[in-house]
Amino acid sequence: xxxxxxxxxxxxxxRGLAPRGAFHPAAGDGVSALPDGRAVGTLxxxxxxxxxxxxxxxxxxxxxxxxxxxxxxxxxGEIAARFDAAVVLPGDGPPHPPFLRWAQRAEPVHPSPLGLxxxxxxxxxxxxxxxxxxxxxxxxxxxxxxxxxxLSCRERPCLGACPAGAFTTTGYDAAACAAHLEAGAGGAxxxxxxxxxxxxxxxxxxxxxxxxxxxxxxxxxxxxARDRSRAxxxxxx
Length: 237
Fold this sequence. Notes:
Strand order of the largest sheet: 1-2-6-3
Number of domains: 2
Structural class: alpha+beta
Helix content: 25-40%
Strand content: 5-15%
Mean pLDDT: 94
Distance between the termini: 54 Å
Oligomer: single chain
Radius of gyration: 19 Å
């Protein structure tokens, strides 16, 4: 590889993706070897913070299934070729890469009451779109030690904001969420990219704009419908 972490992060930003931290994988991290058999020395995560990728994606998206996933794969593929890296995507597998575990190794994100990872600066308004795997152990900055902002949040407004009651202290009921949206009662949920998510007081300035919110909510429903279809085809009844 010719370059540093700073160079890789600059390349990600130039193509519309946000650098989301990096780490040196260890045993138990669930990081597979590179396609040529070499061990992974550094994993660099990429994604978005708020609307950071939306304008670029909106200009470059194609009429295809899962357009954001495929756009992310193309962009990461271009950058990987430049730096002699391999691309890892959340949908790879099975088994699927443990991106939530990797995220907590790469930057100061923590599980929130909603199950989403919360960041001290970005709140719940961020996502991971893929990773770049390098054989080299790139020089990394010192790990950010900040704790979860949820630890100092006594009211936890996120848990009471869902009109479908899909979020509780015991977990997330995805079926109840989808049923509420499919019944036509979730207009506000679509505009907010989830009312429970929007109730979090952390980093509200990073909330998704309405077009991005609707895109993600629609993608969620499409994924639920696809899962039901697959389950039905696999059911002998």
